[in-house]
Automatic annotation (TrEMBL):
Gene3D superfamilies: 2.40.40.20, 3.40.50.740, Dimethylsulfoxide Reductase, domain 2. This is Formate dehydrogenase. One of its GO terms (molecular function) is iron-sulfur cluster binding. One of its GO terms (biological process) is respiratory electron transport chain. One of its GO terms (cellular component) is membrane.
Length: 646
């Protein structure tokens, strides 16, 4: 077995542009002028030889709204394609798709503060204590104010420790659980008949759909005792106000959008939406992943979440930008990797994403990236993806070195400001994109980030009322904010409660979705269910957190419950071989009673030491394109003593 270097890799900031003439050569330092010209030339050549759709942009969910606006404008105006996407695809795209289908808008319905003033909080597939610690402070205040909390998670997480009841379900059985909760509510006569009648459609079909999901059948499929399911149903239906929050435990499945619909159904059944203190909340991942989508850095929406297929929207942007916009959706991140496989995608401009380590089945992802004709990476660190590039452009860090705005999960747009001096020759993301645009014949004059924001405001009605001055004055504003005087409501869809049908608008349809177990089945060869996720002390692919030297830094482990550790005869710290149908990694064991027999947990935080995504399966949600990071089948083997020593 190959000897492994386990010393943490150190990431230092990129300080000057790097280029190389061929992929076998090392990078050499270049002037900005040379690097920008090379980046632009490659894009021009690709477009001339293979057409606009051979290009794709990955836009940074950590950078500002203004940067995301400019990145999607570059894609649509300079390159002539809608192929722009970001890590939203790996994460909450199912939430956006599910919320849009139900309510016509992809945003979470409530504000953070509302969990402080609610009666019941359900944390469903969300470990907010680790992954959303600021939101979790509001949850704790809610609990102190008397709210009850339920947690639905295969692991007894740090979040679940705070709950009155933990429902430890089998991975991928959220639809059976949600349907059983729905059925129980209907059978107990606790559904909100007036709200259902007035504000929803499809109830009869929904009632029929959930009818087979008795408590005892759901207990068999989910592994949760029937009494606990019944208790959740009654608590949710009888609460005066209730907040249903979910994250990746729901979305990172091959049927993520269906999972989201199944949860939204419960809010429609009980009327827990569109009122202060009652709503549905996907807690978004990156600091500005909500804003990136709002700015149009997604393949199906123009800025302001305006549908590309709607001719009126296109015409508005075509006039403003002086260009034609292709009247079709572009490629999602998932489609892009598929298109690389077939040679249809030839050039990628990757800004602040690390797909070589964050995509499911990373060996396959790396092979596909390597086949590109032209890869430009613009980042603050030399990532694994950057190492594969032709041109590397050093950017400033949006959260500390750049002016602009970002938008959080409660749709609040807030100002960020440059507080630190960027290292070396690093330049702002927006400047770099504009320099490349200029070399391709588009000379945009943005004096500063506010000029970009004002262009967006003029084109997106929901942002029009948010001038920089007003954002400053109110410490951020939530969209939709169409008016320069009136302050926006803190929650969405109050309209559903209006008695006048005109004001009420489109009713919310129940989602008719069926249980569909994980694609990667466990069997005798791969008997363990692996789920992957996060820890409090590290961040995503570890680029921004992996290199810190601290006693808290544990590095990667494969976590097992005590019973399984005993069954495999392994102890804490012992190296094991972990294999899936895609690949094999070696990792030390951690034993944690928060897990249940047959379940293992790993993170994505230390891919330079243990590349967990070699194990995960690229089985995607057909609606949202999100991969099933939460359910792989693995086998664990003790290593022979000699292998451990090497
Ligand atoms: N400290 C820290 N915070 C972060 C990040 C980080 O890397 N580190 N990353 C940010 C990003 S990009 C995101 S998207 C968010 C993600 O935030 P979360 O989604 O809360 O984080 P995860 O740990 O990926 O997954 C949440 C939970 O889903 C559970 N789960 C797994 N399978 C299932 C299932 O089938 N059903 C249910 N109900 N639950 C299941 C897991 O056990 C896990 O506890 O965090 C953000 N915040
Ligand atoms: N196994 C497994 N894999 C997963 C997941 C999982 O739960 N399990 N979760 C998925 C999810 S939810 C996500 S969001 C993805 C995350 O996947 P990625 O977004 O690919 O990974 P990050 O590590 O967050 O990469 C962020 C990059 O942005 C750069 N950056 C930060 N700020 C700036 C800036 O201002 N400008 C520029 N130009 N660059 C900047 C950082 O240096 C870093 O290289 O991973 C996905 N992969
Ligand atoms: Mo994410």
């Amino acid at each position: 077995m190959k000897k492994r270097d386990r010393t943490p890799r150190t990431y230092t900031r990129l300080t000057h542009p790097l280029v190389r003439d061929s992929r076998d050569e090392p990078f050499r330092r270049a002037t900005w002028d040379e690097a920008l010209a090379r980046a632009a030339d490659g894009f021009r050549r690709t477009r001339e030889a293979h057409g606009p759709d051979a290009f794709a942009m990955l836009s940074c969910a950590r950078a500002t709204n203004e940067m995301n606006y400019v990145a999607q404008k570059f894609t649509r105006v300079v390159m002539g394609t809608n192929n722009v996407d970001s890590c939203n695809r790996t994460c909450h795209a199912p939430s956006v798709a599910g919320l849009s289908a139900a309510f016509g808008s992809g945003g979470g319905t409530s504000s953070y503060e509302e969990v402080e003033h609610t009666d019941l909080i359900v944390m469903w597939g969300s470990n907010a204590r680790f992954a959303h610690p600021i939101f979790f402070q509001h949850v704790l205040k809610g609990i102190r104010n008397g709210a009850r909390m339920y947690a639905v998670d295969p692991r007894r997480t740090s979040t679940a420790e705070w709950a009155e009841s933990w429902l430890g379900l089998n991975v991928g059985t959220d639809i059976p659980l949600a349907h059983a909760v729905g059925r129980e509510i209907i059978h107990a006569g606790l559904h909100n008949k007036a709200f259902i009648e007035r504000a929803t459609t499809g109830f009869a079909e929904y009632a029929e759909l959930v009818e087979p999901w008795t408590l005892s059948l759901a207990e068999k499929v989910t592994g949760i005792p029937a009494a606990a399911i019944r208790d959740l149903a009654h608590a949710y239906a009888t609460a005066e106000r209730a907040q249903l929050c979910w994250t990746l435990g729901i979305t990172e499945h091959h049927n993520g959008t269906d999972n989201v619909r199944a949860l939204i159904n419960l809010s429609l059944l009980t009327g827990h939406v569109g009122r202060y203190g009652s709503g549905v909340q996907p807690l978004r991942g990156q600091n500005n992943v909500q804003g990136g989508g709002d700015m149009g850095a997604i393949p199906n929406r123009l800025p302001g979440f305006q549908d590309i297929l709607d001719a009126a929207h296109r015409v508005k942007f075509e006039r403003a930008w002086g260009t034609e916009i292709p009247p079709r959706y572009g490629m999602t991140l998932t489609d892009m990797f598929e298109a690389m496989e077939h040679g249809d995608l030839r050039a990628v401009y990757c800004i602040g994403e690390n797909p070589a380590q964050s995509e499911a089945d990373s060996e396959q992802a790396i092979r596909r990236l390597a086949a590109l004709d032209h890869l430009v990476v613009q980042d603050i660190f030399l990532t694994k993806t950057a190492e594969m590039a032709d041109v590397i452009l050093p950017a400033t860090a949006a959260w500390a070195e750049t002016d602009g705005t970002t938008t959080n999960s409660e749709r609040r747009v807030q100002r960020v400001r440059a507080a630190l001096t960027p290292p070396g020759e690093a330049r702002e993301d927006i400047d770099i994109i504009c320099e490349i645009a200029a070399r391709l014949g588009h000379d945009w004059k943005f004096a500063d980030s506010e000029a970009v924001w004002n262009e967006l405001r003029a084109l997106s009605p929901g942002h029009f009322g948010m001038t920089y001055d007003r954002l400053e004055e109110h410490q951020g504003l939530q969209w939709p904010c169409p008016d320069l005087e009136v302050l926006p409501s803190s929650f969405l869809h109050g309209r559903l409660w209006e008695s006048d049908p005109e004001l009420r608008g489109r009713p919310a349809p129940f989602g008719i979705v069926a249980h569909d177990p994980p694609v990667d089945l466990t069997d005798d060869a791969y008997p363990i269910r692996l789920t992957t996720g996060r820890r409090l002390d590290s961040y995503n692919t570890g680029v921004q957190s992996g290199s810190f030297a601290s006693p808290l830094r544990r590095g990667e482990y494969v976590e097992l419950c005590p019973e399984d550790a005993e069954r495999y005869g392994v102890v804490v710290g012992e190296q094991v071989r972990v294999s899936s149908r895609r690949g094999t990694v070696v990792a030390p064991v951690w034993v944690d009673p928060a897990l249940r027999p047959g379940l293992a947990f790993m993170t994505m935080h230390f891919p330079d030491e243990v590349d967990t995504n070699q194990l995960t399966i690229e089985a995607n949600c057909p609606i949202a394109g999100t991969a099933e990071f939460k359910a792989s089948a693995i086998r664990i083997e003790k290593l022979p003593v000699a292998a451990v020593r090497s």
